[in-house]
Amino acid sequence: MYVPPQFAAKDPAHASALIRAYPFANLISVDDDGLPSVTPLPLHLIEDAGRWLLLGHCAKPNPHWRYLQARPKAVVTFMGPQAYMSPSVYPDLARVPTWSYLMVHCTVQARLIEQFDDKDRLLKHLIHDHDSAYEQQWRSLGDDYQHKMMAGMVTFELEVTDLQCKLKLNQHRPESHEAMHAVYAAGNDDQRALADWMERLGLVGAIQGET
């Protein structure tokens, strides 16, 4: 991913926060014909002593797991909030429109998970992330049903070996920040999230200090 220095996140906690808030990722591998294979899927992040693991699964008929088995190196992308940015945020007219967005790219090394207990532990992480009320129902379904369901999926862990986090919020154009923040703060969910990130990164500290 092309990341100009002004947009590169300096703190890994920013990447972690985006992954946890926007866990629906794209897993990208090379297929048997040498072309990209892309699978959208939710992933669970585990951070342990500086080691990052992404846990996920796909349906067994999906050939993507075979590509991971044959070629374990892959890429995972997470798209955070994104929105159009109008040139009206600048005090002068010699400007062009652009797009604001937050994104994380991970280079990963894949390992398939085959033992039932390990697969069950992985699934419980994902259930807890997205529907904790379902946990008790899953436990009550019985071993036969659980084994049947797990036989129809392939689970894997993806160890992050390289990380890029791009926070494209016009950091290098401070004259736009006050108007950008006002527009985004009054906008849709993505725009409001971008306004929150502008505050988090200190791009509107002067505004906050005046209120």
Q: Can you give me a brief rundown of this structure?
A:
With 211 residues, the chain is α+β, with helices and mostly antiparallel strands.
Write a concise keyword list for the protein shown above:
disordered C terminus; alpha+beta; 7-stranded antiparallel beta sheet; Pnp Oxidase, Chain A; 211 residues
Shape: elongated
**CATH architecture field:** Roll
Unreliably modeled segments: 206-211
The radius of gyration computed from the alpha-carbon positions, rounded to a whole number of angstroms, is 20 Å
* CATH C-level class: Mainly Beta
CATH topology, by name, is Pnp Oxidase, Chain A
Number of domains: 1
Helix content: 25-40%
Number of helices: 8
Instruction: Enumerate the strands of the largest sheet in spatial order, edge to edge or round the barrel.
Output: 2-1-5-6-7-4-3
Set out the fold topology.
Elements lengths: L11 H10 L2 E7 L5 E7 L1 E5 L2 E9 L4 H7 L2 E13 L12 E16 L2 H15 L4 H5 L3 H9 L1 E16 L8 H9 L3 H12 L4 H6 L1
Structural commentary:
Helix content is 35%, strand content 35%. The protein has eight helices and seven strands. Strands 2-1-5-6-7-4-3 form a seven-stranded antiparallel beta sheet. Helix 6 packs across helix 7. The longest helix is centred in the middle third of the chain and has 15 residues, at 116-130. Residues 206-211 have low confidence and may be disordered.
